[in-house]
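> forwarded from #structure-qc
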């Protein structure tokens, strides 16, 4: 468990954040200048808060009132930056063990680094460099891992290569991970918990599936980023037409591609802008996914858009429609309607393990 309650004045910018992070991945999400990097730098000891307290497990890293401020090298914090910062004159093996060799064999296997050990950074792709940087950070046996925009410099292909490795670490390395990003697809795929920052303060926080599906969270995360995150299970593979059948509490979904083996858990992000609403069950349409849902909330924005919270079984969904559609359909909280989701609306970046 990680607890951060810090205040810091940085010119005209004031950081005042109170965060509790359980085991697993906690995403620190927000626009540029919202204070994301300031929080991880305070965790690492690279920035000293004006006031507050930082605790990891039973270890107090910083406590202004008690005059406790552990030096960075005594904090047992692993830090992965946007750029890998590997030593160019060392091969991968030496880069990995520079700070220690805790659980080296297991981490090398988890991150798929076995074939890279004798190579030098100049011969690695961006994704390979970040996997090495991640391994190096974990081999120092940290009690918490900080990842500050680790995929921001990678193209879509390299991101797709490294994300499964981070998912494996999330599931198998039992330490809190703070993951800073402004990319909602990364956050939705990796995080268990999300903290949304706005102007240096926590605007909203909680389990990822709850926060991203809240209608009133749309202005905070952005209209294009808003959407639901649900856990599904592979119930069937219809490979003759390139689809995978997924089951969840709200029914069945058909999604493109071979998403894994039968019974495997798949995390799915469904963007709000790709959910269509209907008062009656539609017939004769091309969309394969038609779900009975109940309206749980309606949030009208400043513009023409309206966020509509939905409940499908026990899972939360989110739709974004126009104000005119809301009025024309006479939608209201408590109504039972239908949500229509095109199979092609969910991209590969929105599907995770």
């Amino acid at each position: 468990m990680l607890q951060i309650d810090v205040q810091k004045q940085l010119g005209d910018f004031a950081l005042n954040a109170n965060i509790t992070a359980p085991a697993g991945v906690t995403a620190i999400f927000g626009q540029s200048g919202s204070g994301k990097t300031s929080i991880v730098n305070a965790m690492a000891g690279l920035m000293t808060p004006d006031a507050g307290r930082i605790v990891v497990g039973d270890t107090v890293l910083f406590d202004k009132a008690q005059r406790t401020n552990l030096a960075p090298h005594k904090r047992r914090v692993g830090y992965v930056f946007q750029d890998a910062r590997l030593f160019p004159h060392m091969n991968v093996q030496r880069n990995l063990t520079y700070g220690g060799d805790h659980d080296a064999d297991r981490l090398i296997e988890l991150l798929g680094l076995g074939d890279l050990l004798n190579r030098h950074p100049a011969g690695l792709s961006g994704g390979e460099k970040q996997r090495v940087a991640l391994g190096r950070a974990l081999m120092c046996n940290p009690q918490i891992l900080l990842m500050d925009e680790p995929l921001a410099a990678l193209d879509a292909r390299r991101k797709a290569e490294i994300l499964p490795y981070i998912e494996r670490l999330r599931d198998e390395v039992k330490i809190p991970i703070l993951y800073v990003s402004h990319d909602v697809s990364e956050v939705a795929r990796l995080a268990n918990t999300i903290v949304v920052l706005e102007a240096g303060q926590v605007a909203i926080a909680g389990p990822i599936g709850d926060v991203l599906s809240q209608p009133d969270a749309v202005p905070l995360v952005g209209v294009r980023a808003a959407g639901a995150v649900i856990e599904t299970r592979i119930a069937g593979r219809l490979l003759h037409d390139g689809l995978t059948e997924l089951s969840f509490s709200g029914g069945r979904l058909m999604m493109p591609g071979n998403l894994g083996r039968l019974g495997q858990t798949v995390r799915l992000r469904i963007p709000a802008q790709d959910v269509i609403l209907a008062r009656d069950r539609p017939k004769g349409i091309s969309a394969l996914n038609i779900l009975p849902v109940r309206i749980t909330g309606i949030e009208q924005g400043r513009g023409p858009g309206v966020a509509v919270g939905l409940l499908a079984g026990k899972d939360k969904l989110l739709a974004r429609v126009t104000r005119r559609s809301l009025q024309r359909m006479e939608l209201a909280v408590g109504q039972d309607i239908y949500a229509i989701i095109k199979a092609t609306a969910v991209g590969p970046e929105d599907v995770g393990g």
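QC bot note: The chain has a mean pLDDT of 92. Residues 80 and 147 are 5 Å apart (CA to CA).
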